[in-house]
Amino acid sequence: MSTTTRTNPLSYLTDQMNELKAKGTHFRLRVLEDEQEAVCTFDGKKVINLASNNYLGLTTHPKLREAALEATKKYGVGSGAVRTIAGTMRIHMELEEKIARFKNVEACVVFQSGFAANAGTVSAILGKEDFIISDELNHASIIDGARLSRAKILVFRHKDVAHAEEQLASIKDQPGKKLVISDGVFSMDGDIGPLPGLCDAAEKYGAIMMVDDAHSSGVLGRNGRGTIDHFNVHGRVDVQVGTLSKAIGALGGYVCGSKDLIDFLYHRARPFLFSTSHPPSVAATCIAAFDVLEQEPERIEKLWENTRFFKKELGLIGFNIGGQNTPASETPITPIIVGEGRLAMQFSRELFDEGIMATGIAFPTVAEGKARIRTIMTATHTHDQLTQALQMLKRVGKRLGIVN
Ligand SMILES: *Cc1c(COP(=O)(O)O)cnc(C)c1O
């Protein structure tokens, strides 16, 4: 064994973390001690939870819990291989068939996460001769997929259909394939992508149309069928991505489309080929979740009722909830924009001490000067809990000079 003292080659990471600490945007992970619920315990403190993506309260739904336990008893805890080797279980196929029927498309492939679905799909269907026309606020997994594909990336201004069309026009004589891609619901601002206009533009220029419905699955459209259903653009979106990790309450992502698209992804999407499939309990949970979407539509109604109430009251308190220099939320995601990263983090910390879990989000996740806390409604928040949360938000907001 060598006795010479070794200098730490990772010390530059420590320097960077020290910089974050000096800027006030360094964070510690908050640890959940019980279940992901409207009121739960983080770091030993009981708080009203405004931070989860558990829109419909499905993380603890008795039918989903039962399905997971049952599948574990019957099929064990793991799949033992990637899908293409020996890790395709009957229950994986059942889930894909179930989602395809729900979305009224030919076929579906499930990935380990929404991130893997986006990154794996974009990088598989395009190559370096091709073009991606992408909204500037699209999710990181789309951006990573675009980079991995080595296609040329043309960014259009947020939700600006005319700019997307300009980008398409600028490459109309180039031989490569073109892909127009947008989030269905944007995760930091809660606004909805302009799908009808983007579909028109894509059709005009013969481009492929792709939508990432992570925050719209289970939230928008009939029984939570997503933005394609919300806008009634059925048959006009070639690649529909959704997540099983948010409203669905478990974990995973999926791509819906034609039989040939899905067959191609079975053969070429790298996370599908090189990473092990879900445990059977996860597949069973998701199957049960789609039954709940069909059988308990009142959950989605309650989610929207809570959303309308909470947004209105936040506005009345005087918070900047978007709409001036920032997009205006139209969904259960409501940002409270405060500007400086340090202030957003302090706001989040003091809210926690008061009894609210609401995460501070700063650069680089959102633009410099647009730091915020992000609140997310769920169907399971009671009116009482929301009234309490609003009082706490008002108290802390006043104390920090965020509202008058
Ligand atoms: C959360 C999210 C994803 C990733 O989904 P996971 O299933 O959590 O990996 C992809 N796209 C968007 C827009 C998201 O908000």
TrEMBL record:
The keyword Transferase applies. Its EC number is 2.3.1.47. Pathway: Cofactor biosynthesis; biotin biosynthesis. InterPro entries: Aminotrans_II_pyridoxalP_BS (IPR001917), Aminotransferase_I/II_large (IPR004839), AON_synthase_class-II (IPR050087), AONS_Archaea/Firmicutes (IPR010962), AONS_Archaea/Proteobacteria (IPR004723), PyrdxlP-dep_Trfase (IPR015424), PyrdxlP-dep_Trfase_major (IPR015421), PyrdxlP-dep_Trfase_small (IPR015422). The modification N6-(pyridoxal phosphate)lysine is found at residue 246. GO terms for biological process: biotin biosynthetic process. Keywords: Acyltransferase, Biotin biosynthesis, Ligase, Pyridoxal phosphate, Transferase. The keyword Ligase applies. Pfam families: Aminotran_1_2. It catalyses: 6-carboxyhexanoyl-[ACP] + L-alanine + H(+) = (8S)-8-amino-7-oxononanoate + holo-[ACP] + CO2. It is an enzyme of class 2 (transferase). Residues 45-392 form the Aminotransferase class I/classII large domain. One of its GO terms (molecular function) is pyridoxal phosphate binding. Its cofactor is pyridoxal 5'-phosphate. Homodimer. Catalyzes the decarboxylative condensation of pimeloyl-[acyl-carrier protein] and L-alanine to produce 8-amino-7-oxononanoate (AON), [acyl-carrier protein], and carbon dioxide. Belongs to the class-II pyridoxal-phosphate-dependent aminotransferase family. BioF subfamily. This is 8-amino-7-ketopelargonate synthase. It comes from Koribacter versatilis (strain Ellin345).
